[in-house]
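Researcher: Next sequence.
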Amino acid sequence: YDEVTGDFFFTPSGVEAPAPSLSTSKSKDEILWAAIKDSDTISDFEFYLSRFPKGRYSAMAELKVEQLKEEKVAVGVFPDKPKGRAMTVNDEFKMIERIESWLQRFDPAARRRIVEFLNSLVKDERR
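Model: Next structure:
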């Protein structure tokens, strides 16, 4: 009986017990993180967080989820021109609606600065 750690073990007489091995292998937490760390899929990081909510990389996984969600919103708000054809008035109207909806998240002063910036882009493009 080892009083320090509380482990109980049998040792046959005349035979020494093997020394405990110090495992240097990676934990399940580290293995999963290594597999997903470069992913661009939100569900990969949400899966990691569901398995290891207090894991070694949970803060980084939460940050990555937020970053990917922001990128997804930006892509949805500012989509590329439809491939193979010019943008129609309807396409432009839909884009304006998305931008207006997206702008509602910001306070009025920030909205004004964003609109000014977007207007400057449009002016530069028309030159």
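Model: DSSP finds five helices and no strands in the chain. The mean pLDDT is 76.
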